[in-house]
Specification:
221 residues, 4 helices
Length: 221
């Protein structure tokens, strides 16, 4: 009699367990009615026309290599970071930079310097050519700063120009300088941040190239 009642109870429980298992499988694979597909992450990259040429058509008779820019740890990732208030950092959900900020800055500056025609040759850190001059740099700030309903794309770079033909450190370092620009943005959105960061990068690339040309031009006199 005991075995009969246990079997009958099991028969009543089995369909319930089967339904629970089926629903669990549906939840696992996201097949329940009304479930939304996973949201895709959108990727962004800065874009701008290279700055104008300032060498009057006569390149300097030297070569230069651009080392890979480092980045402060707070920005050494692909998150689109913004500061909604002092001491607080956040990032846009489902929106990321296409590449790391340090690499993005490096690639654009190599492109800009090559486009300028200022040097006989411009090489990146990926190339093995020996050059007289080397530019090293780091990204200290790469974010959107929001204050009083206004946003700004903030870019801060620290660069150093080195003459590899000199042995004394005081003579090897031609200059070391910090460059910073805040570009107002229309909206506090990933698109506006990208537009503002593009304008900031163009502005600083222009300033850095002017200083490089002026510094090396003085050495060649």
């Amino acid at each position: 009699m005991r075995n009969y009642h246990m079997t009958k109870a099991n028969r009543r429980v089995a369909p319930v367990l089967a339904q629970i298992l089926f629903l669990g499988i549906l939840c696992l694979f996201g097949c329940l009615p009304g479930n939304k597909p996973p949201q895709l992450t959108e990727q962004y990259a800065i874009e701008y026309a290279p700055p104008a040429v300032y060498n009057n058509g006569t390149p300097l008779p030297y070569t230069i290599r651009i080392e890979r820019f480092s980045a402060a740890q707070a920005y050494n990732n692909q998150s689109m970071t913004y500061r909604p208030e002092p001491y607080k950092l956040a990032s846009y959900d489902y929106h990321r930079w296409r590449v790391m900020p340090g690499d993005m800055v490096t690639d654009h500056f190599v492109r800009d310097l090559r486009n300028s025609g200022m040097f006989a040759g411009v090489f990146s850190y990926r190339e093995s050519e020996s050059t007289r001059f080397v530019l090293e740099g780091g990204v200290e700030e790469f974010l959107e700063v929001d204050e009083q309903r206004e946003g700004r794309a903030v870019l801060c770079l620290n660069v150093a120009l080195i003459d590899t033909t000199q042995t004394e450190i005081t003579k090897r370092l031609i200059f070391q300088k910090k460059y910073r620009h805040e570009e107002p943005i229309k909206e506090q959105t990933p698109v506006s941040l990208t537009q503002g960061m593009s304008a900031s990068m163009k502005r600083l690339s222009d300033e850095i190239m002017r200083d490089i040309y002026a510094s090396i031009h003085r050495l060649s006199k």
